[in-house]
Amino acid sequence: MNETPDPEGLSQAVQKPDFLTKKEIADRSQVTIGSIDKWMKLRVIPFYKIGRVVRYRAAECDLALERYRQKARR
């Protein structure tokens, strides 16, 4: 097999997207897009905004939501 070098790591970026859209985060968290909007407004979850584009990192959102985890009662 003759593989071409990938100096910029483009194939890795295509395989595993680093940033997710609002819909992807909502689906992943099993909530509505409206809930994501509210969480953004309240600064519950971190997000990146570049111009009009908003993106999220799944690991950062998971970590932020972990603060709201309720422990089981005995």
Quick structural summary:
The chain is mainly alpha-helical and 74 residues long. The chain contains four helices and two strands, in the order H-H-H-E-E-H.
Chart the SSEs and their pairings.
Elements: H1 10-15, H2 22-29, H3 33-41, E1 48-50, E2 53-55, H4 58-66
Antiparallel strand pairs: 1-2
Structure, described:
This protein is 43% helix and 8% strand. Strands 1-2 form a two-stranded antiparallel sheet. It is extended, with a radius of gyration of 17 Å. It has helices at residues 10-15, 22-29, 33-41, 58-66, and strands at residues 48-50, 53-55. The protein is mainly alpha-helical and 74 residues long. The protein has a domain at 18-66. The mean pLDDT is 87. The relative contact order is 0.15. It contains 4 helices and 2 strands; from the N terminus they run αααββα.
Query: How does the helix and strand content classify structurally?
Result: mainly alpha
Strand order in space, largest sheet: 1-2
Number of helices: 4
Gap between N and C termini: 59 Å
Binned strand content:
5-15%
Order of helices and strands: HHHEEH
The geometry reads as: extended
